[in-house]
Amino acid sequence: MGKERKHVIAMLVEDQPGVLTRIAGMFARRGFNIETITVGKTTKKGVSKMVITAVGDDSTLEQMEKQVNKLIDTIKVIEMPEDSSVIRELCLIKVAIPNKKAKEDILRYTKIYKTKIVDITQKSVTAELIGEPAKVDAFIDLMKQFGIKEIARTGVTAISRG
Amino acid sequence: MNGAHTIVKTLIKEGVTVTFGFPGGSVIPLFDAYLDYKGKLKNILVRHEQGAAHAAEGYARASGKPGVCISTSGPGATNLVTGIMDAYMDSTPIIALGGQVPTSLIGNDAFQESDMMGITLPITKHNFQVRTPNQMASTIMKSFKIASEGRPGPVYVDLPKDTQVGEVTEPIPEEVSIAGFQPTLTPNPLQVKKAAEAIVNSKKPLLLVGQGVIISGASKELHELVEIAQIPVTTTYMAKGAFDEYHDLSLGSIGMHGRKIANYATIHSDLLISLGCRFSDRITGNLKTYAENAKVIHADVDPAEIGKNVKVDIPIVGDAKNIISALVAELKNLLLKSKISKGLEKQEAFQNKPKPKEQWVKKIKEFKASCDKCVKVPKTARMHPRDVMYALNGILKPEDIVVTGVGQHQMFAGHFLKMRKPRTFITSGGAGTMGYGFPAAIGAKVAKPDSNVFLIDGDGSFQMTLQELATVKEAGIKVIILIMNNSWLGMVRQWLELFFDKRYSEVHLGDVPDFVKIAEAYNLKGIKVKKKEDLDKAIKQAISNKETTIVDILIDKESNILPMLPPGGHIKDAFGGCMAGQGKFFEGDL
User: Fold this and answer.
1) Mean pLDDT, to the nearest integer, of B32-56?
2) Neighbour count for residue B338 (Cβ, 10 Å)
3) B315: chain A residues, CB-CB within 8 Å
4) Roughly what angle, to the nearest 10 degrees, separates helices B535-544 and B385-395?
5) Per CATH, the architecture of A5-79 is what?
6) Which of B332, B348, B403, B474 is the most exposed place for a label (fewest CB within 10 A)?
7) How many whole angstroms from its chain centre is CA A68?
8) Is B161 a residue of the active site?
9) CB–CB of A14 and B180 under 8 A?
10) A70 vs B contacts (CB less than 8 Å)
């Protein structure tokens, strides 16, 4: 076994019922772990783009790509290397406001992280953060001290640079 | 024209002349349409849908054309599942047409509704649900394309009843294309060149041939390659017959119960050339130690097979026939170049010394000759299974087809029978489906009516699908059934004997039914054989009989199929079987 790392795989697939099941089912059956999966329409009619993040060594990644490619509904598979891709995730995070001091800290941190406040009440604040998964992780970590009430992450989507 | 007529017309357009199926509520419109196409398309009425699926497989394996099976929805369709899975494991092109409740009822748990799309998803190359009558023709055409091109496999098509009854307004298309399905058939010339150079530079090359060679129809090219390069050949059970097993460079079949010489050759080889073989665990044993002294060339049409199990040095993606032809051309080219560069004198001098490769081939041939001479059969109270194989070897004509069930008898057949031609040995490899043999033999006979089709089956395996005796009687299909009857589930019994201290649990079949009487009950013929001396005559009688004949052969109850590679073990740990000089043969510097 080689060194395990996180891979981002983008694929163009036929926009047909059951496509998600086929791909997710193949990953499960072959024992590949999906961390995140996102899917959306493209500008081409009948074609969707799906982005999966999965963990494994290089030979596992090779198998994943080949097995996904083998599915009839898969049109194209591309690995998205970190250094030549824009990789983003959206996270909504609802944080408790235990006291006034905390509120000030939270608002300061959200500014530093360039998040958008989308909802605020006396007891909680909800921020919207878009960034690479590592940045999202760091922000969530930072918010833990105040008490996270709820989070919702979309999973990763990606596009190649240039 | 309604959807059902469109199905039949499209099948005929795809070159289908026969299907294997069983009716039911959801396919009444489809079988109704058959009545209007008599003489162009017929259905063989099986007695269980599993039989339909295996018969379609046998048809495909014998003919090379996709086989078609048909069932109704719900339980009918789920009965196809074992056959579909078997076809998936063995890359067999079949189209399974399953009825479905009308689209308006799908998802309502209607009578005889089952989610066949979900059920067949992981065991098909692809599946389709036809949603409107106008999708019918293109969907079926896509199914044939997917099932037969690249690495073949099963395609399931779900046919809601309303799409069969509804009116089709669009014409049947000329052809179809599928964006995500473009198999690579032509090999990369650079990879072929690398492979040819590796062959020239190797001292102990070995060809490992898989079913891909049969599927692509590359037997002739393979023989040419062997003649030019003088490389010993072993085949998987699935590829038995791809290379003439009477050829002096044939090592017979490889694997868990394969020939020791073939298995041992992989340990000593310095170049393993795999053509259309997927390195299953029944071939490799422990992957860590498999072919550890060899560089590996892996040629396969399915890129996902390359590097899946065995680490590969030279991968080649493409169709086996194209790859072998390209290899032959490249080798001729290299040999010509070396002759020119060496000059005539040098070449003569070179020829006087034995080349390392020739030593390898010479030793292998010598050992093989000693193996071929050795036909000793262990003494047992009843007939030894090997006797049946030796008798059959004497009877088989090159174009005769042998189909097997699954179990010890299958391994005896794979080990001891010698086949000359591709598509003459049909067996359930990857799935190991007991009950596969008889219906598959029916399909093979329908595909090749002029060949004798022998079914070698076990008493356990045969009992799983023997209801198809009614099918062969009614449809006038002649299969020569040889039952290796030992009243045990012999393969599992062997494992219990060898690995579980003879703690026999659920493997004794006890008072096995009288297969001669069973044959007679179906108005067929049956012959019981108790003594070795009567075997030849009985088989010949079965061949000359007009109808299907069961030859019930009472074999030794507790004979094991040996040699055997312990599952997951090192190939050198293979035990049992004829050892004639084997140890010595591979010792020392080859």
Assistant:
1) 98
2) 12
3) none
4) 50
5) 2-Layer Sandwich (3.30)
6) B348
7) 19
8) yes
9) yes
10) 302, 304
How many helices (H) and strands (E) in chain B? 23, 18
Question: Which residue in the list B20, B22, B49, B191 is annotated as catalytic?
Answer: B49
Q: Is residue B379 part of a domain?
A: no
Given B319, B341, B369, the domain boundary residue is B369
Q: Is B39 exposed, middle or buried (0-12, 13-18, 19+ CB in 10 A)?
A: exposed
Residue with tokens 């509704």: B113
As for how many domains chain B has, the answer is: 3
ipTM exceeds 0.90? no
| B243: containing domain | 189-369
pLDDT > 60? residue B346:
no
Q: What is the pLDDT of residues B527-548, one digit of tens each?
A: 999 999 999 999 999 999 999 9
Instruction: Answer yes or no: is pLDDT of B588 > 60.
Output: no
Could you say which of A14, A21, A59 has the minimum Cβ distance to residue B307?
A: A59
Give the pLDDT confidence of A83-140 residue by residue, as tens digits.
Answer: 999 999 999 999 999 999 999 999 999 999 999 999 999 999 999 999 999 999 999 9
- Per-domain residue ranges for chain A? 5-79, 86-160
Domain A86-160 in this protein, CATH class: alpha beta
Verify that B224 and B153 share a domain, yes or no.
Answer: no
Query: Do B392 and B357 reside in the same domain of the chain?
Result: no
pLDDT value at position B260?
85
Q: Do A66 and B303 touch (CB under 8 A)?
A: yes
Q: Are residues B486 and B519 in the same domain?
A: yes
Convert the pLDDT of each residue in B417-439 to its tens digit.
999 999 999 999 999 999 999 99
Alpha carbons B273 and B277: distance in angstroms, whole number: 10
- Look at B180 and A73 and tell me if their CB atoms are within 8 Å: yes
